[in-house]
TrEMBL record:
Domain of life: Eukaryota
Pfam families: Arginase
Enzyme Commission number, as recorded: 3.5.3.1
Family note: Belongs to the arginase family.
Protein name: Arginase
Cofactor binding note: Binds 2 manganese ions per subunit.
InterPro entries: Arginase, Ureohydrolase, Ureohydrolase_dom_sf, Ureohydrolase_Mn_BS
GO cellular component: cytosol; nucleus
CDD domains per record: Arginase (cd09989)
Any one Gene Ontology molecular-function term assigned to this protein's record: arginase activity
Record keywords, A-Z: Arginine metabolism, Hydrolase, Manganese, Metal-binding
Amino acid sequence: MKTQIDYKFYPTKEVTIISAPFSAGQGKGGVEKGPGLLLKHGLREDLEALGWSVSIKEPLKGTGLDVPPSELEEEFDRSHGIAKRPTVVAQATERVYRAVKEVSHQKRLPLTIGGDHSIGVSTLAGFLDANPDACVLWIDAHADINTPETSPSGNIHGFPVALAMGLSREVWPKQFSWLDEAKNKLAADRIAYIGLRDLDPCEKKRVRELGIAAYSMYHVDKYGIAKVVEMALARINPTGKSPVHISYDVDALDPLFTPATGTPVRGGLTFREGMYIVEAVAETGNLGALDIVECNPDLASTDVHEIDTITAGCAIAKSAFGETLV
Ligand SMILES: NC(=[NH2+])NCCC[C@H](N)C(=O)O
Ligand SMILES: [Mn+2]
Ligand SMILES: [Mn+2]
């Protein structure tokens, strides 16, 4: 058994935490407090204790974009279907994209902490810019592959995978034209989902038609989490040589473990299943990038719920950065 993880892409163990306190990709205030709380609960010190040198970037600082959605411009794009607050979401995601891109080119591991999952478009496009062969594990109850004409809610945190893949470009709100500059689109055979259990009908169709590797909770029950991770990595990283970007929505875990999140869905991953996924990727040495999103303390009904959710976020990071192997 291995006792030390060899991070192939980061031999000097340098990470930059990209703080993305942003919430207008959905309608519930509070998720913008996620980064501050993760840091308050010792995220940085946890990584340092694991031998990583840590720096922090705050691409939204001073922009006024780091406030609850109710304080941002209320705007609807109804040119094709619906997209809510496209101007501010496009501004924030572009800034986070530039930060992730810069960090990725510096060969430091980008750890992006949200904030809602709309910033997934930033992390995918930014990491792919420096790593064209990257592959993605999207850990989530949701597929986040809507576009305005398929979205039931208009919330852009349900769009990031579709945007990064360049799907239905003609229906995007015009504010997202910054994304045309991102040269590497995410290919359908380079992403796998784990933890799915709440897809909109059009999303199901899209995932099926594109042939995306999708492991729902049914597959986790049927095969066990270890086999699911193995199958997912075999699909997206057959040579085992590409960096793996994990985009982790904390609602993938069962609401018993991460109750303070905007779109909880029962029947999710256990705490250990959730940690196992990132541990297994870490053990391969292929961890490339990590996002931890959708912690919303304002939706906690007790202090314990808030602490459980935030410390679960910290635990995902620790597991990914090498804590578990003794
Ligand atoms: N990142 C998330 N929590 N996304 C939830 C999306 C829910 C739903 N599919 C929608 O598009 O509105
Ligand atoms: Mn989700
Ligand atoms: Mn999500």
